[in-house]
User: What shape does this take?
Amino acid sequence: QVQLVESGGGLVRAGVSLRLSCAASGSRWDFNAMGWYRQAPGKQRELVAAVTRGGNTNYADSVKGRFTISRDNAVNTVYLQMNSLKPEDTGVYYCKAEISATAYWGQGTQVTVSS
Assistant: This one.
């Protein structure tokens, strides 16, 4: 059974940094794309950043230059380094991992940025 376990969220002031981690387990197959999505109150879930197994990355325009996604394939873990956080970054951050055409989601971790 595939499991994704996120960690690293919290309540912080604007301008500081946070690092999210997501450890994936339970699959005999390699994870393909992995990424982070977020959902703010009253809004739809949106892509924040994604990374392929080969290291190609994709970012939402709103986080380019501030957030960095990376992954360690040896331990099936994806990270999101978030710098210069803004109040509009507030939301529940979800980890997503894909195996072939199947997507798996973590339970989410809350990030709250106060002004």
Summary: The chain has a mean pLDDT of 95. The CA atoms of residues 71 and 78 lie 4 Å apart. The two ends are 40 Å apart (CA to CA).
